[in-house]
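Per-residue structure
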Amino acid sequence: MWDVIKELGQTVREALRDWPGTLRLLCVLAAVPARSHDPGRYRAVIVAVAEQVLRDVITGELSEADTNAVFRAAYPQYFAEPGCAENTCHKRFRRARADMRALLQAVVRRDELQP
């Protein structure tokens, strides 16, 4: 019985230790605008692409053109919507990149980028 209580206590301690990260993620997600018919998916895509951009920056593989392909692959119903006017698609990509930049600026402070 005590072993079960110890395990439960450890699980609770781990969950409480991580709550600031979870809360921060929820705040970050809430800060991303709801631009599509599925706001939760749009927000998740913006966060996922922002994470990928950070990885690409570290490896030196970043290209703005690549972000369009990643957005399109992650959420084709919005970024490659059939019948969507070309200028509308361009606006969606531009806004998504702006949302991603704003998200990164909110998460990564400028002083953290200084060598």
